[in-house]
Amino acid sequence: MMKIAIAQLNPTIGDLTGNAQQILAAAQQAASENVRLLLTPELSLCGYPPRDLLMQPMFIQAMATTLNHLTDALPAGVAVLVGTVVHNERSPQTGGKPLFNSTALLDGGAIRQVFHKRLLPTYDVFDEARYFEPGLESTFFELDGVQIGVTICEDLWNDEEFWGKRNYTVNPIADLTSKGVDFIVNLSASPYTVGKQLLRESMLMHSATRFNTPILYVNQVGGNDDLLFDGNSFGFNRDGSIIFRAKAFEADLITLEYTTETQTSGKSEGSLRAISPHAVASAFRDQNAEIWQALVTGVRDYVRKCGFQKIVLGLSGGIDSSLVAAIATAAVGRENVLGVLMPSPYSSSHSVTDALALAKNLGIETQILPIGDLMKEYDQLLADLFAHTEFGIAEENLQSRIRGNLLMAISNKFGHLLLSTGNKSEMAVGYCTLYGDMNGGLAAIADVPKTRVYQLCEWLNRGGWQSHWGDTSLPMEVIPAHVITKPPSAELKPGQVDQDSLPPYEILDDILERYIEQHESPDAIVAAGYDAITVDKVIRLVTRAEFKRKQAPPGLKITDRAFGTGWRVPIASKWLPHTQA
Q1: What single-letter DSSP state applies at residue 283?
Q2: 3-state helix, strand, coil in the chain (%, to 5)
Q3: 378: Cβ–Cβ under 8 A, 6 or more apart, which residues?
């Protein structure tokens, strides 16, 4: 019998000492429970993804030094698998990359063995071939007579039978089971997207049963820049039964027990069971609850890891800023959020009353800074230059830029993090103002389509806030009803509504999802029932807005195709897809 612990950790990229301390604390807790083997996530020592920090020799050296110190400090009797980076000693001769993405086995005050990641992803947000050389073989270690195969993240994602195709030339899981390992561990830093956990569990269950081998998967948790990591570590026995599921979006430590039994055939087979109480956390049943917790985690960690204390944002009385204010309040507490109202002569009376009602519901501080006089100053200053022209987008955008300047002044003066409040639908078609409402250090809902914004607000008002935080001090209706029911408007000119410039959001969002996430052609979108003129207009807007997205703050990624790290579209391009009709 062997006790194994799963340490689901939330590292900060580059905080080698702090991350090592997290690993040490987990090891000390594991030792108190007589655990023999502790698993930590991929690159747990430096945090994932370290990106171009890997090009700094001092960083690599500091990681090696920290790993040695950690090795010396670990409690006796606990072997720990730690995600780290090691030099490829053969790279000068072979021309390969200088580093491996590795896992080190620390035991008895020494580094006993090192394992290299074999499959290096280069799609979406990943660019591991930029830094790492792939490992040449799938290997295992023996601990107290048990043979344990080691894989790292992507190594698990090439079961050709599950996918119906082979993405890489090797399948590390198949290689390890052919060597007769007792079970396999996978150390991951797998970024979150909506619904991804169901796919992970289906894939791992398939591999466990196909290869008749238990598999344990430990995932990183927390937010690092635009990427979110949901944790949700889990494991399956050889019969496909779930062993454990760690908490979503929280650090966790789960203890397991590995035992062997003699089968009727005379062969010994091992199985795992959880011995921690409540080891199988509930899976999300509501996507809105899942997305909400992801966004709150992302904002909280961005604030904490970047050294901020408080958040400032503009409150327009609209649904987007209302949702972002609620996320900010849940992330850092009502006492650490400042909402700024900046009404113009075009603002409706309900914009102010709705914003104040929201702030009262959330219990956050507000400031009102009317911008009418500033608009007049700009008009007078530009009067001669703009003479003989009609009022248009330039004047409308000045209002947004005045607001953006005021918010940035508050951010600079008090050191608050400015959250921008634009949603994915607006970012996609450029319905946003550069150096105006796009100002900010983090775009909290930049990957949330407008229709989903409404769904999240309605979910909050159905009790989502109370069910997730147990906070009954807020009214049940967190988002004022009028915010949800009124037509969305930027209010940059009299009587303006979004649908003056855009298709209804139900139509726009479906076209955008088909084009951006499903990669459907314009003709395929038309064939789905949409007007060709509308489809061409939307795609043209998406193409023309690329220069804005390149200058936007980082946005928390929740979908398979976000306007962030994984979006690599040129600005200067003549390619414009269009319908053939």
Answers
A1: P
A2: 40, 20, 40
A3: 398, 402
- Three-class SS of residue 537? helix
Residues labelled as active-site residues: 42, 117, 153
Rg (Cα) of the chain, in Å, rounded?
26
Per-residue tokens: 135: 């490992």
Query: Can you tell me the distance from the alpha carbon of 137 to that of 66, in angstroms, rounded to the nearest whole number?
Result: 27
> Which of 148, 117, 143 is CA-nearest to residue 131?
117
CA distances in angstroms from 546 to 286, 427, 534, 551, listed in the order given: 33, 9, 19, 9
Omega prior to 49 cis, within 30 of 0: yes
CB 26 within 8 A of CB 45: no
Q: How far apart are CA 469 and CA 572, in angstroms?
A: 46
CA distance 71 to 256: 23
Question: CB of 4 within 8 A of CB of 27?
Answer: no
Q: Which of 26, 6, 13 is nearest to 56 (CA)?
A: 13
Residue in the structure block whose two tokens are 């200088």? 98
CA distance 467 to 488: 28
Buried b (16+ CB within 10 A) or exposed e, 490-525: bbbbeeeebeeebbebebbbbbbbbbbeeebbbeeb
Helix, strand or coil, per DSSP, at residue 188: strand
pTM, two decimals, is 0.94
Taking alpha carbons only, the member of 403, 444, 159 closest to residue 298 is 444
* Amino acid, single-letter form, for residue 10: N
The enclosing H or E element of 174 equals helix 172-178
Structural contact between residues 354 and 482, judged by C-beta atoms closer than 8 angstroms: yes
Report yes or no: 194 and 150 within 8 Å, Cβ to Cβ.
Answer: no
**Alpha-carbon 17 to chain mean position:** 24
Distance CA 472, CA 475 (A): 7
Pinpoint the alpha helices (H) of 249-317: 287-305
Distance CA 430, CA 451 (A): 17
Mean pLDDT, contiguous 10-residue spans, the chain (581 residues):
96 97 98 97 98 96 98 97 94 86 97 96 92 94 96 94 86 94 97 95 96 97 97 96 96 94 66 89 91 97 97 96 96 97 83 93 96 94 93 90 97 97 96 94 97 96 71 74 81 64 92 95 95 95 95 96 93 88 62
Name every residue whose Cβ is closer than 8 Å to that of residue 128 and which is 6 or more positions away in sequence: 101, 117, 120, 121, 122, 154
**Structural domains of the chain, ranges and CATH numbers in brackets:** 2-283 (3.60.110.10), 288-498+545-549 (3.40.50.620)
Q: Of all helices (H) and strands (E), which one includes residue 211?
A: none
Q: Is 28 exposed, middle or buried (0-12, 13-18, 19+ CB in 10 A)?
A: middle
Q: How far is CA 313 from the centre of its chain?
A: 21
- The DSSP 8-state label assigned to residue 448 in this structure reads S
- Residue 528: closest CA among 517, 514, 516, 540: 514
Rounded-to-integer distance, Cα 542 and Cα 537, Å? 9
Give 272's strand partners. Answer: 258
> Does residue 532 come out as left (phi exceeding 0), alpha (psi in the -120 to 50 range) or beta?
alpha
| Pairing state between β 2-8 and 110-116 | unpaired
